[in-house]
Amino acid sequence: MSDLNRYLQAATRDNTRRSYRAAIEHFEVTWGGFLPATGDSVARYLVAHAGVLSINTLKLRLSALAQWHNSQGFADPTKAPLVRKVFKGIRALHPAQEKQAQPLQLQHLEQVVNWLEQEAQTARTQGDRPALLRARRDTALILLGFWRGFRSDELCRLQIAHVQASAGAGITLYLPRSKSDRENLGKTYQTPALQRLCPVQAYIEWINEAALVRGPVFRGIDRWGHLSEESLHANSVIPLLRQALGRAGIAGELYTSHSLRRGFATWAHQSGWDLKSLMSYVGWKDMKSAMRYIETNPFLGMALRAEKPVAPEIPNSSINTVG
């Protein structure tokens, strides 16, 4: 691979590259389209999958086709008036409400963390090291994911060398890149220690129990308690979370990894954080992105306000998200 191609490839994120490759394969192999495509063939492709694929999936397919044509020096057929008109018609005839992950409410966060603590204590008593390690890992992952508002891929990319934790004080986490860091400048995130449901203490307990000194923070654990050298895959966070919630008596199938992020955003909003502070803390660049994560259900708001007197407090003024 030439240096030029190497840098061009680095400019596109791995997940995006995989999605685009799959989209091109679907157009060319599964559907039988020809590349370079025409506006007419792209319009027929859309019609063939209208009502079958979601609007967001169709948008991704169009983006992949546009990227392929632009990179190969061909005219972009997705910009043809016919394609735009057909897509507009599909949106009108096949409207779909965007699915949102259920936010993890504070009482459920406490319930699952308490359950994991019980599992850890039982495992220690019984000498079950694999169960003890999983309980400590899952507690740290869930609490960091919630209070820091991290995505699953961000949690899985955390490296021990990029984390500094001080018991009773706070934790600093550096990510060389993230979805919101389009320029790949890297970001430093900070979170203070809490009296309850503390992500700092959970992280320290996990690192100490696993005796980790380098490499990824969150990694797989086999049936004998051996730790993988590789980080967890982002797709494994959802089953991990659902299983932990299910064992704690919570309907885990309602939640995804985004539930941690949405749960924190909803809690912060209902606890009086102004939108600017919330956006700065989580890393959102625009208000539209932030509002998608804030649960506006009035009954949920009442429940959160009812818990507010005993909820952990994260002072906005003590947090700096950019290092």
Explain this structure.
With 323 residues, the chain is mostly helical. The protein has two domains: 3-93, Tyrosine recombinase, N-terminal domain (DNA polymerase, domain 1, Orthogonal Bundle); 106-318, Intergrase catalytic core (hpI Integrase, Chain A, Orthogonal Bundle). The protein is built from 14 helices and five strands. The chain has helices spanning 3-10, 14-30, 39-49, 55-71, 81-93, 106-126, 129-148, 152-157, 199-210, 237-247, 258-270, 275-282, 287-293, 298-307, and strands at residues 163-166, 170-175, 187-192, 219-221, 227-231. The strands form two sheets. It has a three-stranded antiparallel sheet, with helices on one face. Strand 4 (219-221) and strand 5 form a beta hairpin. Helix 6 (106-126) runs antiparallel to helix 7. Residues 297-311 and 317-323 have low confidence and may be disordered.
Quick overview:
This protein is mainly alpha-helical and 323 residues long.
- Quaternary organisation: single chain
Pick out the low-confidence regions: 297-311, 317-323
Helix content: 40-55%
Write the H/E string, N to C.
Answer: HHHHHHHHEEEHEEHHHHH
Report the end-to-end length measured between terminal Cα atoms. 34 Å
The total beta strand count reads 5
The main sheet orders its strands as 1-2-3
How large, in whole angstroms, is the Cα Rg? 22 Å
Count of separate DSSP helical elements: 14
Q: Sum up the overall morphology in one term.
A: elongated
Q: Considering the protein shown, what is the CATH homologous superfamily of the largest domain?
A: Intergrase catalytic core
Strand content: 5-15%
Mean residue pLDDT: 84
